Amino acid sequence: MAFASSRSGDPLPLASLHQLIDLAAGRPPQERQRLLLGVADLYHSVGGQADAPPALTEVFIAMVRAAEQDIRRVLAERLADAAWAPADLMRLLAADAIEIARPVIAASPLLMDADLLALLQDASLEHQVQVALRPDLGPGPARVILDRGEPAVMTALAVNRTARLEARDMTRLVDKARSIAALRAPLTRHPQLSEDQALRLYAWVGDALRQAISQRFSLDASALATAVAAAAQEAAGITPDEAAARLAAKLHAAGQLRPSTLMRALREEKLDLFIHALARLSRLETEALRRALRGDSARPLFLACAAAGLDRAAFPALLREVRQLNHGLPHDPDGEAWRPAERSATQAAYEFRLLTAPEDGPSV
Question: pLDDT digit string (tens) for 163-222?
């Protein structure tokens, strides 16, 4: 007979462990519960998942599978935050009935992002909501929740103030609030809500939430009016490009258009607004800027940003954001060939026009 040693040095007869399953089967529920909790204590005492014999792990999980729902619920509550429990067992309990799964999904350190993604894909809506509420939820599962677009799950994500949302995913959640009213109140109070996102949210909420946003961010009245006007334009059926052009013009007229607006627009995945804001700041033509974005060199885009007053040190980060939204363009086969010597805004604009002028157009 095979034996393994416990921490106390006493041998564990592994072959006889399987008799516990037969023993449990013939006992009343209360005795089965005590026996299963005793096996859990034994598993912990011999070192948990790090040191427990494989046969003990197998028996432990088999006994849980055979236990009644009430017993599994008691065990799930006891093991919810245990780091020593078998990972396979915690995955089993997380996929069980929601009354059993809830404490495990909420607290188990053994559930990895892959396990949470599997629950989002295959489990019930209640399980998905619990995943969205999980403390310190990672950006991967959060993004999948947004991709799936289930309102109840996204609302739970908005309520979860500890979820690690990336800035562009937070913007996506704010954009969803336009059509999903349940998102608005929790997003208004969300600690990751930025001022730009608050401006966008402001246009879609009622008076009480508008007051809360205004008090929290001390937003400028002209910026609030611009946000409301932009939302009205979208509702009126104006194309995204037209809405972006009008928003850039309103921001410019209100003195709110600055080089930093360019990066904010990209991080909020608003490439049209980036183009029109860049055109306003640089005094360059939008069509020439669109040609620059389709080009085989990043140099014209750099020159346009220099003409707009963007700090040259900020351009590499801006270029990465542009490429993420623009199918990897503009290409830059020569590495950092876009790095010319220091130029004034006027010089940069002049060189930009030289580089982007159509072949059949007038000379600059």
Answer: 999 999 999 999 999 889 999 999 999 999 998 898 888 888 888 888 898 888 876 666
Would you state the structure tokens that stand for residue 284, as one six-digit string? 């360059």
Q: Are 192 and 139 in contact (CB under 8 A)?
A: no
Are the beta carbons of 116 and 145 closer than 8 angstroms?
A: no
Q: Is residue 299 part of a domain?
A: yes
258 occurs within a structural domain: no
* CA atoms of 264 and 182, how far apart (whole Å): 26
Domain boundaries, position 25? 1-111
- CB 343, CB 355: distance < 8 Å: no
Name the strand (E) or helix (H) holding 5. strand 3-5
pTM over 0.70: no
pLDDT, tens digit, 9 for 90 and up, residues 228-276: 666 666 655 667 788 889 889 988 888 889 999 999 899 888 899 999 9
Query: Using an 8 Å Cβ cutoff, are 279 and 286 in contact?
Result: yes
Compute the distance between CA of residue 161 and CA of residue 188 in angstroms, rounded to an integer.
Answer: 11
